[in-house]
Amino acid sequence: MKEVLQEGYYTVEDYYKLPYLEEQRYELDEGLLLMSPSPTGGHQKLYSYLNVQLFNYFDNKGYIVIPDFDVQLFEDEDTIYRPDLLVLCDLSKYTEQCIVGAPDFIIEIGSPSTINNDLGKKKLNYERAGVKEYWVVRTPYLVYTYLLGSDGKYIETIHRNEIKIQSALFKGLELDFSRLQNL
User: Whole-model pTM?
Assistant: First the structure.
């Protein structure tokens, strides 16, 4: 479960003044400072496997895949998310500190402590910001995918027991979950 570190309101500036600790993962949600527990081994295996597939697909295409990096969706809000994986096509949104604006594709690997937020508030904020494709990988056997429709609303597809899932946004990008059956 995400833990509130301290009561009080934190700004984006406060967030970036926090001491960097590699073993801790912070997010800022409307001024509330949150810390996620360390990921499990299964989470890390899934994360690594998907990261390699994304990197292999996007290598030399002019886009970048960034794992575990800060995203400030709205410049005027004190919210910073740290998605597990993201793909950025508009490189002008990249800074050394964070992505400013909506990435094109985000994958969150949902754990029991984060799944409600991943499918709730985060999904709504990603939709509002214009993230074109968003996936929540609950397990290798249960994946929620969202594609931003022309009306600015997500179209949801639930994938159960599918070994390969095709991206709706990127032609030819198919993530293979077959090696992850023992997670």
Answer: 0.93
Q: What is the pLDDT of residues 1-16, one digit of tens each?
A: 455 556 789 999 999 9
pLDDT at 157 over 90: yes
**Tokens at 45, concatenated:** 């295996």
Which segments within the chain are labelled E, that is strand? 3-4, 25-29, 32-36, 64-67, 71-72, 85-88, 99-100, 105-109, 133-139, 142-148, 154-160, 164-166, 174-176
Contacts of 161 (CB under 8 A, 6+ apart): 141
**Where residue 122 sits, what CATH number does that domain have?**
3.90.1570.10
State the total domains in the chain: 1
Fill in the DSSP letter of residue 80: B
Q: Is residue 148 in a domain?
A: yes
The span from the CA of 8 to the CA of 15, in Å, is 12
Domain that holds residue 145: 39-180
